[in-house]
From TrEMBL:
Its EC number is 4.2.1.1. It catalyses: hydrogencarbonate + H(+) = CO2 + H2O. This is carbonic anhydrase. It is an enzyme of class 4 (lyase). CDD domains: beta_CA_cladeD. It comes from Ureibacillus thermophilus. It comes from the Bacteria.
Length: 193
């Protein structure tokens, strides 16, 4: 409750003092890009600064591990909306070194759920409804493979425009350095040859 009160108090002053004015933009990304990246706290300000992005330049989608876990899940839907409805014409999948999702143990997380009140009956009912909870919660071991897998899912999605470049990169969360794994323009050129 303390953080909520602090946020609301700050927000009241922010609005009253019109501190929002420098951030006014519209819903269309100025640089016509959509970025799928991790929700890691180190990337909140670092990623946009390292990419020379300002408010309004890009659609940024965040998820644990920058993963497209399911081709018809919310992450892929958001990418399709950005491309078809919000004028994005390039996609960047940006993972990062030292990602917490690379070490997620689903069994450990399920134990934490139980400790916080999720009953064994609920866990069983999820299993019996056809969802493999362990697999659904599983992280990944290799950040490069994860980024390339997400890129592959996007590029090969039946609803994704085949002429739209999808890039894969990894960021160093301390320095902001970006390492290119796959260049979407080069990939498209190879596909047309």
């Amino acid at each position: 409750m303390a953080s909520l009160n602090e946020i609301l108090r700050f927000n009241k002053e922010f609005v009253e003092q019109k501190q929002y004015v420098p951030y006014i933009t519209d819903k269309f990304p100025n640089k016509k890009i959509v970025i799928l990246t991790c929700m890691d706290t180190r990337l909140i300000e670092l990623l946009p600064k390292a990419m020379n992005l300002r408010n309004g330049d890009a659609k940024i989608i965040k998820s644990a591990g920058a993963m497209v876990a399911h081709p018809f899940g919310g992450i892929m839907r958001s990418i399709l909306v950005a491309v078809y409805e919000l004028q994005a014409d390039e996609v960047y999948v940006i993972g990062h070194h030292d990602c917490g999702m690379s070490r997620v143990d689903p069994h450990h997380m399920i134990e934490h759920m139980k400790q916080r009140g999720v009953s064994q009956e609920i866990i069983k009912s999820i299993k019996y409804s056809g969802i493999d909870l362990v697999e659904w919660l599983r992280g990944f071991g290799d950040v490069e493979k994860n980024v390339l897998n997400s890129v592959d899912i996007i590029r090969n999605h039946p609803l994704f425009p085949k002429s739209t470049p999808v890039h894969g990169l990894i960021m160093h969360p301390e320095t902001g350095k970006l390492d290119l794994l796959t260049n979407g323009h080069e990939y498209l050129k190879q596909q047309s040859e």
